[in-house]
Amino acid sequence: MRKLVGTLLAGLAAVALAGPARADVTIGVVMSMTGPVSSIGLPYMKGFAAAEAGTPDIGGQKIHVIAIDDQSDPSAGARAARKLIEEDHADVIVGSAGTPVSNAVYSVAAKAKVPMVYTANGAIPGPAGAYEITIPQPMGLVLSAVAEHMQKAGVHTVAFIGFNDAFSDAVLAGLKQNTDKLGIRIVDDERYARNDTSVTPQVLKMIAAHPDAMFTGGSGAPGALPHIALAEHGWTGPVYSSHAIINDEFVRIAGKSAEGVIAPAGPIVVAAQLPDGNPIKAEVAKFDSLYHKANGAGAVNPFSGYAFDALQVTYNAIGEALKAGAKPGTEAFRAALLQALTTTKNVVGVQAIYNFHPGERFGVDTRSRVLVTLKDGKWKLIH
User: Fold this and answer.
1) pTM of this prediction?
2) CATH for the 5-137+282-366 domain, from 3.40.630.30, 3.40.50.2300, 3.40.109.40, 3.90.930.60
3) For the chain: N or C, fewer Cβ within 10 A?
């Protein structure tokens, strides 16, 4: 099961075959390198590679990153987490690409009192979630931009389609959080499995509901399926989605069927159009250089930005935790690391400026989202 990141991706060099010396900090990464979520997981891995290419000097502290493929499977993710914690003595866990796997990984990490940095969009509510923070923007925040656009466009009814799992449940909840207060009604809710090859029955039901607009709540490559079906069955009205489709594989597979889709995105997607004084724009320029240094030529994927930011926040927290005097590999260090993660202040990333508070899972604000549309296969800024 174990994959050495340096073998999988050039530039991720701090992976070790054996457990590190106890004085070193160990970051355990659980990521979907294979399986249906790998279209997101592999870009995440490239983001980790970029972050490691620019690892800051934290008082000379050695930092090891050990990555395991969760195969896009929650059970495999849980096993990976146990291995990282029990055998490799990870001080912090980072991952995964999908919410279901991330939740399974977290259940293991929380039981062991190991802090976790979510790179998928998910959050465990209440005291049960005390050991995690989440990097991607919360659905309610990013989808507020979508609901505002719908209102201005005269949309009153929307049909929804998404995965039959926790991720799309969260998307729908975030959408309704914003549309309900604007008087926009969800008139149909259709679901499909990530590995399905057809959504024709669901799309026909959506069209039969006569909505003003469609909303797709999937992600990555599997999220392209409804767009293809909508186009095949003659839908020409507006289509909205979440930031989870801002992905090269989605654009490649959906092709012209997704032309004109409107979605929120992190600022990294249109960084060149941000004002010169925007601190995120400057961070994106640094990230772009590190990304190509670590991964070679090729377009930067926005999902890699979440992974990059996850390690920036983690590096910052490691520095703060070391000030507490606890030794890496101990319960005291993990507790100090958790405290540092949940009180992160003004860490500038490529997707947001991060400020976390104890008891809150997300640490971003409206600076973390813009609204874009797909035009000629490229994402263009709306506002």
Assistant:
1) 0.83
2) 3.40.50.2300
3) C
